[in-house]
Design brief:
Keywords: ATP-binding, Hydrolase, Nucleotide-binding, Transport
InterPro entries: AAA+_ATPase, ABC_transporter-like_ATP-bd, ABC_transporter-like_CS, P-loop_NTPase
Pfam families: ABC_tran (PF00005)
Strand content: 25-35%
GO molecular function: ATP binding; hydrolase activity
Shape: elongated
Bound molecules: adenosine-5'-triphosphate
Protein name: ABC transporter ATP-binding protein YxlF
Oligomer: single chain
Structural class: alpha/beta
Number of strands: 14
Strand order of the largest sheet: 6-7-8-3-9-10
Length: about 300
Amino acid sequence: MSTLVLDSVSRWFGNVVAVNDVSLTISPGVTGLLGPNGAGKTTLMALMTGFLAPSAGTVLLDGQPVWRHTEAYRQIGLVPERELSFGYLTGRQFVRANADLHGLDDAGAATERILGVVDMVEPASRNLDTYSKGMRQRVKIAAALVHDPALLLLDEPFNGVDPRQRMHLMDLLRRLGDEGRTVLFSSHILEEVERLARHIEVVVSGRHAASGDFGAIRRLMTDRPVQYAVTSSDDRALATVLIAQPSVRAVRLRPDSGLDVEVADLGSFAVGLPQWARAHGLTLLDLSPSDESLESVFAYLVNR
Ligand SMILES: Nc1ncnc2c1ncn2[C@@H]1O[C@H](COP(=O)(O)OP(=O)(O)OP(=O)(O)O)[C@@H](O)[C@H]1O
């Protein structure tokens, strides 16, 4: 069982800070690395696998630095986001090439074993060019696992994969985690991460924004202030009623019609709004969230 520890890790490219003072621990089991596009997930994975040197801080696998440490490389498998560019190879040849690169004693047997684990024995004699996206992902996972590493990192493994194959991949990663491997996958989709990860790390704009199980992360995201657009039979009267409520943080009249309402406590607001309207003889005509983008959720987390 392996544990990866990042201690105050930063990485900059010229004056772009891709990763900014990140400290986190990845333990055995499945962890999700959640963040919007450009958050620094790919750079973090490159730092974690020892492909990239930190500009500051350290990345330790079981107490050993991963940068320029070949012993650590034997314990790490990476499934990169980029597509396979060796379409002329068969799945078996591709996995075997990785087994040979690792200098495995019985590269042929290791190749067959891992093709079985990812359920790709039958299509393994076909060229990579002929595979679906999900099959290519499975063969990439086989290549990353052929040397039996304790740590497996996957960069956006579900991107473009159809729902059935996605379930299949999730089952596979869950199984690898249950076996005691340390599995980290990145994603920009909360639902995807929630379904699979026991533990979630959130990164935004290169910074570590939150950490916890999916209940904790979900609570952080639903407890944030939320914007609603509300239209009623008398918006000015409703504004007066709403601003008196502790669950409401701000109310603004829209130029055309309706109100923008910033809600601090979604639960109380959802229960109270129809009651307040009824008590003052007002009719609610429309209620819709106006600020539901994942980017705004992330912006809230990082600015907390
Ligand atoms: N080699 C590089 N040179 C300059 N800037 C870079 C380099 N690599 C990454 N960056 C910048 O660092 C930031 C983080 O990029 P990164 O690819 O790690 O994010 P990401 O979360 O993986 O995003 P995506 O999901 O879109 O790939 C971005 O602003 C990116 O432009």
